[in-house]
Amino acid sequence: MSDKIRIGIIGTSWYSGFLLSCLATCPEAELAAVCGRTRSRAEELAAKHPGAVVYTDYNEMITKGRLDGVIVASPDDLHYPMVMEALKAKLHVLSEKPMALTVAHAQQMWERAEEVGVKHLMEFTVRWMPHSRYLRQLVQEGYFGRASHYTFHHYGDRAFNNDYDWHWDAARSLGVLGDLGSHTIALALWLGGEIRSVSAHLATFSQRLNPEGQPLVGANESAQIILDFADGAHGTIQLNQRVHMGERARDYHAEVNGEAGRAEVDWWWGTPNRWGKVEMRGVRKGETEFQPLPIPDEILQGIDPSDIFGVFQKHLVGPRLFVDAILRDYQPEPGFDVGVKVQKVLNAALESHQTGRRIYING
Q1: Is it the case that residue 1 has pLDDT exceeding 60?
Q2: Nearest residue to 69 (alpha-carbon basis) of 51, 96, 42, 87
Q3: Helices (H), 100-212
Q4: What is the DSSP letter of 147?
Q5: pLDDT mean across residues, the chain
Q6: In Å, what is the CA distance from 189 to each residue of 9, 195, 363?
Q7: What is the pTM of this model?
Q8: How far apart are CA 20 and CA 169, in angstroms?
């Protein structure tokens, strides 16, 4: 075995490439294997990492790759079988969101990871961004007093393309709930604590065909969600992947309201050759104007606040956090326990839409 932490990745999407670019900044780790359904794409990714072996069967990679850990960056419906196979081999796991398609599967994944004693981490990218961490700090410092309401929106334009995409196949995906909602719900839990109940209305606007040319049951492309937090606060989430974005690839707004103050954050990251923008502002009780809320240096640690993804190249987040946790033997956050909590909210939203009822979350 090499002295370095040997990591394998399952999945060859553009986001897999992003995760590998983050992993490449870890001198203590090496990419030992790449697994993808299409060998040519897996070879393309592996070519940037000398020594990485290419597989088209994830079971074979897990069995023969001599790995310490695995990154699961596959479509939603494959997270459960792939993670469970990795845990069977007692590998540390970094999983893309959402954790699974069902709460039962997510619960099994968490319990198994704890049973075998490996490190487990969820890739909730928005939670790690500097503006999210500053919002969390403001909550902890009492900037808002008792919080009364949280507002979030998260927009994209991915659903305008009517070609087959597993993200919009209800048999394989939780739709915009899983795509954008996972990030947003993870942040809502981090800021506001436990969520007691969920009411939701979902919409699908497109009629797509499956790869065989037959009509498929489409996953939700838009979602409106009302949250009730355990402490009595309310929350609203609006998700939509059919929004015209202009120069923006992704558009996000978060807001916290409380007895003592209010703070807002708006950010977007751009299409190729454009960077991004982050604006934070707040107003306290008795003040008559919003004031800028610059992100503190101790959070930025040298990162330009407009460089939305800069933290993933320099801070202990994502693959960098995963490797550090393996090396130094601690359980990183957010782990699979948080993944289960997010999964409960996602599936409660689906049930609320289907039944027209408010759904209470247990545990």
Answers
A1: no
A2: 87
A3: 103-116, 125-128, 130-141, 175-176, 182-192
A4: E
A5: 95
A6: 28, 7, 13
A7: 0.96
A8: 27
